[in-house]
Specification:
By secondary structure, the protein is of the alpha/beta class. The protein contains 23 helices and 30 strands. The protein starts with 8 loop residues before the first strand and ends with a helix.
């Protein structure tokens, strides 16, 4: 804690998303079993969607991911070779576990692809033992490359006793899946005990395993039975908020339904060693997993050493622990963590470089790092390399009053914790904060949210971009998110009149967002596709998608998250009513339909339209207004500006003047 700055108070209840490790395995084991498996509270993140997509491509009956669904398992015999490459996105878990499954299915072949980050991560660690069992694994690319693309050929496999020099739950899990699929015996020995979710879940499904502190033994000829799953909260995700409470000056945070598997709780043990009080309540065991509620309190933090056998128990949490160490008294050393160099980024180098960029005394070690804590204010720009855990770790550090930290890619948190920024805002916000309000910028005053709404072709987006530029803040186009969803829905080949909210949102995991110098842009499959999103097919169908309540809810979540760390100008429907109901300034633009049609055609055609063209476009806009009527009503406290006889420059000047006055009032100028 520190008293040299305004205090950080935390309060409330956090229920982190479902555990990622258990979510992956729930889908895989359900597909391998015979019979129905009900899965509740799964983490519907990009990584888990990658596993679901891979299993569907192999013939598994995996429905759209939701809070409660049923997988109709037909056994491993029903799984076949995919017709095209398996897109694993950024998910190493998907790649390694599914590769083990394919290796054990004689006659099946699968090519594994991923994004640039995943393609650099080492896969020989699974390829070597799978090859030893009799599978064939081919790497593509330059000689010596052992990442993706990778092709796995399933073969009749032999039993294996594999001595792994590094504790790895993914390697262990891949070999057990290969053994289960092929009926072969598998023994894995490790220097330290790695995560044991596979073991616990397989035992619950009737598989006979011999488990010890240094390994596991799977006898040959085992099969799985279907068992329902309730996925607990991910302890890795919960750790961020345990750290937030530890760094606070006042209050407490309750972290509900957290998985307390002993192989996953190393970070909580480290925090306790640093002086943090963490109470456990409502402890229970469900499906072989220990679950409970953690209550975490602020602490006077002291430095510690992290290494040896505890590293596998907190490997994913080390970036957050390093950020906590930056505020502890003394020098913290992390060693024996070379595995961090082959995660989503080289996390050793990335964490140290970012800490030093903020002003922290930090040093990179071959297998870890050294951090000297202080209470000095930190400021700077964090480069995440698209790594979700770096974004969240430095987001927590940035929540301390006095720190001014910006994150280059806050949208990457969607990989594991899509609602992270909103949960952070609720944890540090005032007790009266609206749950649907945009998160506050870390360490700074409450954000200035300028909400600009209006009917179609009222000039919302172009006006909002201009206002944002003049105010030197970020622009968020909520309509672009609807267009991104519509673009993906069109790509499915399903006729638009057959679209359902569930089917449309089944593709939404492919959308994230990126914070550029002045804008927040939706990103589809890792790339900005603005031109495709503005094409006529998308324009014709976007209203259909925007009418779906579930889609509106999803878009609203993205927009709220995008406004997490900075002042924003946001435009779109529902902006001042449903998305930012407490926005400091709300503006509603209106204009005569004929004038709106004329402006739209000038923008589209690049010339003056004739009256016939304007009349046709006016009819289309009036019809669109009728469809959008429920969403196009102004908020009661919105300022309405009729732009029919006003130039865009004049309306922008009015909004900028209003915004500056609002900002001065809010910040006491």
């Amino acid at each position: 804690m520190s008293t040299s700055r305004s205090p950080l108070a935390v309060r409330g209840i956090i229920r982190a998303p479902g555990d990622k490790s258990i979510s992956h395995r729930s889908l895989i084991f359900a597909a391998m079993a015979s019979g129905p498996t009900r899965i509740r509270d799964i983490l519907a993140s990009a990584d888990v969607h990658a596993t679901a997509g891979a299993l569907r491509a192999m013939g598994a009956d995996i429905p759209a991911l939701s809070d409660d669904f049923v997988v109709q398992g037909r056994g491993v015999e029903a799984l076949h070779s995919p017709e095209s490459a398996l897109d694993c996105g950024n998910s190493g878990t998907t790649t390694r576990l599914i590769a083990g499954l394919v290796a054990g299915l004689a006659g099946r072949v699968a090519r594994f692809e991923g994004d640039a980050s995943l393609s650099r991560r080492p896969m020989r660690r699974i390829a070597a033992p799978l090859t030893q069992m009799g599978a064939r694994v081919d790497f593509e690319g330059a000689s010596g490359h052992d990442g993706l693309p990778m092709r796995v050929h399933g073969m009749p496999l032999s039993a294996i006793t594999f001595v792994n020099t590094h504790a790895s739950a993914q390697v262990k899990g891949a070999l057990m899946l290969a053994g289960l699929a092929s009926g072969s015996g598998v023994t894995v020995q490790e220097p330290q005990r790695s995560r044991d979710h596979s073991e616990r879940m397989l035992i619950a499904r009737g598989v006979q395993l011999a488990v010890s502190d240094d390994g596991v033994m799977l006898p040959p000829g085992q099969t799985l039975t279907a068992v329902d799953v309730v996925v607990p909260s991910d302890p890795s995700s919960a750790t961020f908020f345990a750290a937030l409470a530890a760094l606070a000056d006042e209050g407490e945070l309750r972290l509900e339904n957290v998985c307390l598997n002993p192989t996953r709780t190393g970070a909580f043990d480290v925090l306790r060693r640093m002086g943090v009080r963490i109470d456990t309540e409502e402890a229970r065991t469900i499906g072989g997993e220990s679950i409970g509620t953690l209550v975490v309190f602020p602490a006077l933090l002291r430095a510690t050493s992290i290494g040896g056998a505890e590293i596998p128990r907190c490997i994913d949490e080390l970036p957050m622990l390093a950020c906590v160490a930056a505020r502890a008294v003394g020098e913290t050393r992390i060693t024996d963590a070379g595995e961090l160099r082959v995660k989503e980024s080289d996390r050793i180098r990335a964490v140290v470089e970012n800490l030093r960029r903020l002003g922290v005394d930090a040093e990179e070690l071959p297998d870890g790092m050294r951090i000297v804590g202080s209470q000095a204010s930190l400021s700077g720009h964090v480069v995440t390399h698209g790594d979700h855990r770096l974004a969240m770790a430095f987001g927590i550090l940035g929540a301390i009053p006095g720190n001014r930290i910006t994150i280059d890619d806050p949208g990457c948190v969607s990989v594991s914790y899509p609602t992270f920024w909103r949960d952070l805002a609720q944890a540090i916000g005032p007790a009266t904060a609206n749950a649907d309000q945009a998160p506050s910028p870390p360490g700074g005053p409450r954000p200035l949210v300028i909400a600009i709404d209006g009917p179609a072709a009222s000039g919302k987006s172009s006006t909002a971009q201009w206002v944002a530029q003049l105010l030197n803040v970020h622009h968020v186009d909520s309509g672009a998110f609807y267009r991104a969803v519509t673009l993906l829905a069109l790509g499915t080949g399903v006729a638009p009149d057959q679209w359902t909210p569930e089917a449309v949102l089944a593709q939404a995991y492919r959308i994230t967002w990126r914070l550029t110098e002045r804008s927040v842009l939706p990103v589809v499959d890792g790339t900005v596709q603005d031109e495709a999103m503005r094409d006529a097919p998308v324009t014709r169908q976007v209203s259909r998608v925007a009418q779906m309540a579930a889609v509106r809810h999803w878009v609203n979540d993205q927009v709220r998250a995008a406004g997490a760390a900075t002042d924003v100008v946001v435009d779109g429907r529902d902006i001042g009513t449903a998305v930012f109901p407490t926005a400091a300034l709300k503006v509603f633009l209106v204009a005569d339909p004929w004038e709106r049609a004329r402006r739209r055609l000038i923008q589209r055609l690049g010339r003056r339209p004739n009256d016939a063209e304007i009349a046709e476009e006016t009819e289309a806009l009036v019809a669109r207004d009728a469809l959008d009527a429920a969403q196009s009503a102004p908020a009661r406290d919105a300022i309405t500006i009729d732009t029919t006889t006003v130039t865009q420059e004049e309306q922008v000047e009015r909004i900028v003047a209003l915004a500056k006055a609002t900002r001065d009032r809010l910040r006491g100028h």
